[in-house]
Write a structure and sequence with these properties.
With 208 residues, this protein is α+β, with helices and mostly antiparallel strands. It contains 4 helices and 11 strands.
């Protein structure tokens, strides 16, 4: 004899579902925008920070993964990473005057900007000037005449994704760092390149 589930179980399941929905309020667009502006201001205070991350880069022809350590100061930055194809550790150091790359064999290369230098030496264009902002979950400041970025916010008023400067950046996860929500994962892609960052450690050095 087949026993049918009691009707009370269906009622109980419905009540649990309704309760779950009731405890997850949906913010109005105005409230969501206020949360975003507050979050944006809290993150923008920090102009000196450091991170350690795992990075994976892929194109149609190649794929590479390694470690990345980045220290960003207000007017300069230093980035250490394992270069692809066994080239060893590479250091990038940049400021308003330009950027230098020091290879594992001691060779030093320079260029006006990091994007062109990375393309010359490694063959892919990674927009570090934009990534400085995207990696902390902010859009890149830009002139009023430039196309506005397309933002999508999560339920907490943080970036879920952004489209800017021919890149799409998504944020699968955040973590609390000193009372500030910072990305734990950052995925970037355009028509030529895909970059995935899994951030293991954040350090905030000012702005608190």
């Amino acid at each position: 004899m087949i026993r049918r589930p009691a009707a009370g179980l269906f009622v109980l399941a419905a009540l649990v579902l309704l309760t779950a929905c009731a405890t997850t309020p949906v913010l109005s667009p105005e409230a969501l925008n206020r949360s975003w502006q507050a979050h944006r201001a809290s993150v923008a205070r920090y102009t000196d920070w450091a991170l350690s991350a795992r990075i994976a880069v892929s194109t149609e022809e190649d794929a590479w993964s390694g470690q990345l350590n980045w220290h960003q100061a207000p007017q300069s930055y230093e980035i250490f990473f394992n270069a692809p194809f066994g080239q060893g550790a590479v250091q990038l150091a940049g400021d308003s005057r330009g950027v230098e790359m020091r290879a594992a064999d001691g060779q030093v290369f320079s260029a006006p900007d990091a994007e062109s230098l990375l393309y010359e030496q490694l063959g892919w264009r990674l927009p570090l000037a934009g990534l400085r902002y995207w990696v902390v979950g902010l859009p890149v400041p830009q002139a009023d005449t430039a196309p506005a970025p397309v933002l999508a916010l999560d339920e907490a008023g943080r970036l879920a994704s952004i489209k800017q400067a021919h890149w799409r950046i998504s944020y699968p996860g955040y973590r609390q760092v000193g009372g500030v929500a910072l990305p734990q994962k950052v995925f970037l892609e355009n028509t030529d390149l895909s970059v995935r960052l899994v951030i293991d450690r954040w350090q905030l050095n000012n702005g608190g």
